[in-house]
Amino acid sequence: GNGSGGSGGTAYAGGGGGVGGGFGGGGGGGRGIEYGGKSLGGIGGGGGFGGGGGGFSGAVAPHAGSGGFGGGSGGSGTGGGGAGLGGAIFNHIGSVTIAESNLQGNVATGGSGGMGGSGFGAALFNLNGSVTIIDSTVKDNVVTGGTGTAENGMADGAIYNLGYDGNLSPEATVSLIRSTITNTVGGKSIVHKRPAIVSGGLSNNATLGEPSVVRLTPASVTSAAGSAQSFASVYTDANGYSTLKTVEFIAGPGSGVGAIWVKFDRIKNLLSIYNDAGVGVKSCTPGSAVILQNSQGKLNCGKTSVKKSGMDLVVNWSIIPKAAFVSPSQPVAMRATNTSDVAVGPVVMGNWTILEANTNTPPSLGSLTPDTLTSPFDVPQTFTAIYSDPDGYANIKKVDLRVSRTGGGAKAIWMTYDRNKDQLSIYNNAGTAVLQSCTPGSAVILQNGQGKLDCLLTTITGLDDELTVNWNITPKAAFASSTPKQVGARVKDNSNALDGWTLLGSWTIEPTIE
After folding, report:
1. From the CB of residue 359, how many other CB atoms can be counted at a distance below 10 Å?
2. Cβ distance 111 to 146 under 8 Å?
3. 468 pairs with which residues across the strands?
4. Which of 132, 139, 138 is nearest to 209 (CA)?
5. Which of 145, 273, 367, 405 could form a disulfide with 155 if both were Cys (CB 3.0 to 4.6 A apart)?
6. How far apart are CA 399 and CA 455, in angstroms?
């Protein structure tokens, strides 16, 4: 309202004072008076909630009325612009449910005046009430501030949620369930407003629908320091995973100090780990070959995955505790924050017992492919041998593959790979010492009297607890016969624990090419 007095107003002191507006009303205009032969300006009344302030008259000591919430202040000869609140719906201390609806193309525009009124809540303005929006669409809504001779009004929010009036300390709640807000023109999609301190020292409680921490699997687990442990954490929001901003997993103190505190930022698609003080972060992309760590543990980005499941966001954290984190019981908590910066947690979801690191576990031999072969001499063949170590393939020190007549090392094609040195070798004819060595991938041929090893075509890969060697071997004519050769292997780890020579297959090297 521009310049009209509302009910329930308060008279202002002074000559010709206007009357303050009640809820939604504008303040009255100030009337000038004559005093001592001079014309004194009138004082405009203040606007009520949403109302513009009263205008003033006269040129001496004028005083414009202040606008109420969202209303503009008055000006010379004109009141302030009133607020445009709730283009489609204005809810005041009510409880409203909107289901399967389309709030589209609505406009909230402030009125014109000395100072323009504000346009808030193109689709919905919720004042001290409760609104639930289910399976609905809020889109293409427009907010604009009113035009003012002194200053234009403000504009914001397709949905404007406001807790107001400290004497009552009201709550204002908007919950969005399976609903979307898109293409808001002139302001943000959602404005969540609550003055920090109001009269009486009370704080208002305006909240949007909160995110939730749903489930942790396993909730209770025991594992050893140095061993990877996977945790599946499920998070959601009232509007589904699409309105989640960040999700977190905290093992240890809830403060984050001295904890394994990791986070996933859904919007940036970044994984992070906090430092020992629980403040700084290091980041990586899920699936990247990066290990993030602090003094308590590590986050394996390559094995940490993120997926969407219905309304939920599921993060499978791959975490390796360090020796410093050994404990009979570390609390495990989850936290979630949505795009409106409403957070829940940390919520303790389980506990984790971390034991001292395991003692060394011996390595073992895996498969050989092919395990049976017949081929002519002077024709290269590739044997794929898998060697494993429960402590990880990096704990493997040396692996061997040997093709022999009787299983011994004499007059055999005996090859070895030293993982620590990244070196391939072939033994001499007597099987007593290394004859030649090379680096995998180099254009070098190692050979003895029985055969050759092609270093360029021999490849090595390591993954988890397995080391795979593709041995590229060419037998010589002197090694050919109709009697199958034995193909054996062995593996040794860094503690010199050994899985000794084991027969894995046979190879018949034909003496002639037909």
Report:
1. 8
2. yes
3. 386, 461
4. 132
5. 145
6. 15
Question: What separation in angstroms does the CA of 500 have from each of 365, 398, 426, 427?
Answer: 9, 12, 18, 17
Contact 231, 215 (CB under 8 A): no
Tokens of 297: 């543990």
Phi (first) and psi of residue 208, to 5 degrees = -95, 170
Q: Are 276 and 257 in contact (CB under 8 A)?
A: yes
Q: Please say whether the structural domain 212-355 has been given the CATH code 2.60.40.10.
A: yes
268: which residues sit within 8 A by CB, 6+ positions away?
A: none
Domain ranges of the chain: 1-82, 84-208, 212-355, 364-510
Q: Which of 232, 298, 226, 497 is closest to 387 using CA atoms? A: 497
Give this prediction's pTM: 0.42
CB 274 within 8 A of CB 294: yes
Residue 130 is inside which H or E element, if any?
strand 130-134
For 45, residues 6+ apart whose C-beta sits below 8 A from its C-beta are: 5, 9, 10, 12, 17, 18, 19, 20, 21, 26, 27, 28, 29, 30, 53, 54, 65
Domains 212-355 and 364-510 are alike in CATH topology = yes
Asked if residues 222 and 281 have their Cβ atoms less than 8 Å apart, the reply is no
* 366 in Cβ contact with 385 (< 8 Å): yes
> Which token pair is 431?
């099987």
Tell me the per-residue pLDDT of 114-136, one tens digit each, with 9 for 90 and over. Answer: 888 899 999 999 888 888 888 88
Sheet holding 205-208, edge to edge: 95-99, 130-134, 171-177, 205-208
Beta strands at 485-493 and 107-109: parallel, antiparallel or unpaired: unpaired
Write down the pLDDT at residue 278: 82
DSSP 8-state secondary structure symbol assigned to residue 494: T
| Fold assignment, 364-510 | Immunoglobulin-like (2.60.40)
Query: Which residues does 234 contact at the CB level (< 8 Å), separation at least 6?
Result: 213, 214, 215, 216, 309, 312, 313, 314
Decide if 343 contacts 237 (C-beta within 8 A). Answer: no
Half-sphere exposure of 96 (CA within 13 A, CB side): 20
The bridge status of strand 343-355 relative to strand 372-376 is unpaired
Using one digit for the tens of pLDDT, what is the confidence trace for 453-488? 999 999 999 998 899 999 999 999 999 999 999 999
77-105 as b/e, with b when 16 or more CB fall inside 10 Å? ebbbbbbbbbbbbbbeeeeeebeebebee
What is the rounded distance in angstroms from the CA atom of residue 113 to the CA atom of residue 73? 8
